[in-house]
Write a structure and sequence with these properties.
The complex is a heterodimer of chains A (231) and B (404).
Chain A (H helix, E strand, L loop, with lengths): L1 E14 L2 E14 L3 E5 L6 H8 L7 E6 L2 E2 L5 H11 E4 L11 H6 L2 H4 L5 H14 L15 H13 L5 E5 L7 H18 L2 E6 L2 H4 L4 E6 L2 E7 L3
Parallel strand pairs in A: 3-8, 3-9, 6-7, 7-8
Antiparallel strand pairs in A: 1-2, 1-4, 4-5, 9-10
Helix pairs in contact in A: 5-6, 6-7
Chain B lengths: L1 H16 L1 H38 L4 E6 L19 H10 L3 E10 L3 E3 L2 E3 L3 E5 L2 H5 L5 E4 L4 H6 L3 E4 L1 H8 L8 E4 L2 E9 L14 E5 H6 L29 H4 L14 H6 L11 E6 L5 H15 L10 E5 L1 H43 L1 H10 L3 H23 L1
Parallel strand pairs in B: 5-10, 7-9
Antiparallel strand pairs in B: 1-11, 1-12, 2-5, 2-11, 3-4, 3-8, 6-9, 7-10, 8-9
Helix pairs in contact in B: 1-13, 2-11, 2-13, 3-10, 11-13
Classes of the chains: A alpha/beta (231), B alpha+beta (404).
Chain lengths: 231, 404
Amino acid sequence: MDLIKLEDIHKTYHLGEIDVPVLKGITMSVERGELVALMGVSGSGKTTLMNLLGCLDRPTSGQYWLDGEEVSRLSGDGRAVVRNKKIGFVFQNFNLLPRTSALEQVMMPLSYTAEELPETEWRKRAKALLERVGLGERLDHEPSQLSGGQQQRVAIARALVNNPPLVLADEPTGALDTRTSEEILRLFQQLNAEEGITIVIVTHDPGVAGHTKRTIRIRDGLIENALQKSA
Amino acid sequence: MRKFYRTLRMAVNALRRNIMRSALTTLGIVIGVSAVIAMMEIGQGSSSAVQQTIANMGANMLLVQPGTASSGGVTFGSGSVLTLTPDDGDAILRECPSVISVAPVVRARTQVVYGNRNWVPLYIYGTTPSFLEVRDWQDLQEGESFTDREVRNGSKVCLIGQTLVRELFQGESPLGKELRVQSVTFKVIGVLTSKGANMMGLDQDDILLAPWTTIKYRVSGTSATTANQSAATSSNVAGVNTSINSLDQLYPNLDNSQLYDQPSAIQQADTPQPIRFANVDQILARAESTEAIPQAIRQITGLLHERHHIRPGQADDFNIRDMTEMTKALASTSYLMAGLLLCVALISLVVGGVGIMNIMLVSVTERTKEIGLRMAVGARARDILRQFLVEAVVLCLLAGGGGG
């Protein structure tokens, strides 16, 4: 069963009088439970594709099916709900809220949709997730008191707090040293294997792609080939 | 409700993260709010100061004058008819319940001399001791007031105001000293406290108070024409003046003194004293309160109609003035001033609000990344809007509370 299905997606940016076509007809799919790498050089359109996958932007034409729902024509509010419930984001520069404790970072997405739950429930869930990623003793640490790897873990915990079926990671190890990168990638693999979360990692680094089960290459706005790689 | 509480908490946390900036932002509104409050206090204070001043000048005072009422001028008609008597004053005090004190006034305008200095006071009032009560002038700077007995006797005592002390006595204590009013020697028994200028700009301290009987019967010059003692005056003393209609001219062949037979001593003793018709120039009355003034006016009018035998339809031979026009003018000035100050304060409050608006704008621009993150995580546009609005409102409320 496909979690993601893209059909002939085009995306063109209109900058004043100039039209810049970035994606020129993407067709691809990702099944549930896959651990996929999306590879391409800068300018290939991988960031744009990532934005579309994350429902942060709308394609100019084409269709995007996410978890059985066609989401490319949704309104801003509709897409916000999808982002909250179906997708978890992990960014290259962590994007944690400044001067906020780790527990509250992870609790933050819950305030937008899980309003009916009491706060104690939120705390429990956040705590469990932080323990899952290995930060059980640093619940009240602020980002300035956490190392890069630890911050990324907090971000991962935050991405998981709403139990999304899909996690999108945009260069998650770009700001980390090799050893910490290794830890983070290992964590992704764990989450994928143990909990069946579908993870798409966007990267330009073949080493990172080597940790995934499949690599999709994109070049000049088109998919080159979808290589099946053995883990 | 719970959502609101959470939004509130989030807003407070966001503000707390940058506490210095939040505090400085609120400064604008704090100043604005405290300015508004201060202006209102000043406005209140000034209007009660105005009330005080009005009371000082005798806000509850009524002025009863003889002569028919006319608009404008104070002396118009007054003196043209001599119809107010001191008994009218007593009757008013007895029979008008809204009037708490009454003082008849006889006016004079003449020169006052002490040593080698002279002065023509603006006010020479012959009156009773209750004048001080009517004018709320009972605290004397020195000495004491004259008494009813001195009024009955026509004693030659007087109270003088600060301007006379300055002009005639040059600051030394005038108590016990004697001065001359129209060649009549008065002893100063008291000094009035300073009252300053009245609403029309006339110096209230330029005053000499004496028993009305003394002023009326011993001091001539109740007309405003002659104020100079050294000029030939008074027609009361026969034979001295050479003005028109002197008895000299009428009977050129006779000595003045021989016009009539001189009565013998016994005849003189048996001749009854002529009853002097005493009239006063004004009667001052004090109503018991500002609200009682219309009532007091009605009562005095009714009483004088009766006493002067005025039938309905006839014109009054007196008029009653109160101070309400002037107090209204003063009050409206003070309201105007208070209103203007309030406007200025409101403007400063608006500026404070604009300050908060600016900072919120800066804050939003600065937190673009945070906003982006929240939206990526699932916030809708209106969630973000609500968050920033609540932050702004919390800032305003805190600032308003601080300013208040």
